[in-house]
Amino acid sequence: MREYLLTIWGIFDPIYFKFTRLCYVSERGEADNIFRVRLTRYKGKPVVLSDGTKINKNDTLVKIHLHNVRLLSELITVKSEIKKAKVIYEYVKQSLPKIEQYVRNHKHENEIKGIIGITLLNRGAERLGFEVFSISNPIYKVLKYSAFLPICFLFGSKPSLGKHSIPSYLFMSKEKLSKLYKV
Fold this sequence. Notes:
The chain is of the alpha+beta class and about 180 residues long.
């Protein structure tokens, strides 16, 4: 059943890609990175990152999106939650240098304050350099949680309302990204 749903999702993913204005990080496309990205204006409450970077409403960030169809296709046969987490961690770690290069070479590089993602997968995020912040708007949090439910189902995870299963913002300042991942 999961394989069929994943196939259907794979058919509709290019439409999602187009309508969300996502782009690939490099010319090599999806083979080169687990993320797809787009510029965004931050709409949440102001946050101050550990390096002093202040992110305010309407600041420019690069929004990172895990390429879920690709990830799920590659992990559908993996049964161990620990192995899945390790694979995702390694994909993200390998992809962040290209994200740094994308930000550094972007025509709006001077306006970009950092990167942002929204995820349920926030365990281990700090080890990668991200800072985790809760989403303050309860309606937006519920909408995001609802959007993640099909991914949890296809991933074979049981969604819960525990600490690590609530959608959160992941932030990393441009300076920290450069310090940790510049190639």
